[in-house]
Amino acid sequence: MNALILVDIQYDFIPGGALAVTEGDTIIPLVNQLIPQFDLVVATQDWHPHNHESFASQHTERHVGEVIDLYGLSQVLWPDHCIQGSQGAAFVDSLEQRTIQKVFQKGTDPTIDSYSGFFDNGHRKATGMENYLREKGVDQVFVVGLAADYCVKFTAMDAQELGFQTYVFTDATRGVNLSPGDTQKAFDEMNQLGIQLLSGANWHS
Ligand code: VGL
Ligand code: ZN
Description:
Strands 5-2-1-6-7-8 form a six-stranded parallel sheet, with helices on both faces. Strands 3-4 form a two-stranded antiparallel sheet. Strand 1, helix 1 and strand 2 form a beta-alpha-beta unit. By secondary structure, it is an alpha/beta fold. The longest helix has 14 residues, at about 150-160. The protein starts with a strand and ends in a 7-residue tail after the last strand. Helix content is about 20%, strand content about 25%. The chain is built from four helices and eight strands. The protein has helices spanning about 30-35, 130-135, 150-160, 180-190; strands at about 1-5, 40-45, 65-70, 75, 100-105, 140-145, 165-175, 195-200. It binds pyrazine-2-carboxylic acid and zinc ion. Zinc ion (ZN) binds near residues 48, 78, 81 and 107.
């Protein structure tokens, strides 16, 4: 049993959004083409309260892209994004959403960020996605979405560590690239861990 995990395909992560990923919108036709080829489709949604402490706006004299210590964890500071209920937090309309079986929201605790769809960044709390996938009998997961160097990477790394056979479609993701080359670095790191990198355009179930 396989599952496709759609990571954070939300307006704030595409051009025009608060934390825009270059070409983030260009993955959507390929994602829509992949969706019907999987047994199960789930999605993650970055879903922050307005006062989330990953936002640079919540700290005095701190700017976007700076790294701080947030209650013992290293935290990149972001622009305000994916605020619960806002248009920026909504899934992009052109994404085919009808077959999404379940949505896992993350980043709801203002004191800790959550890049992975499985756990917060401290691995303190689970979102329920692991149990859900196991109940459905999933053993292989395929990850797509935004952003390659943050939420896609950490979702895939947790999946692999949890024992799912894990694949990332590299043409169905794009990165933030705070530093040039971050996306390639993320692909290299994932590959090192045994996560298999594939082309979605060439994939047939
Ligand atoms: C993400 C930074 C902050 C992501 C979410 O979806 O990759 N990145 N929040
Ligand atoms: Zn976020």
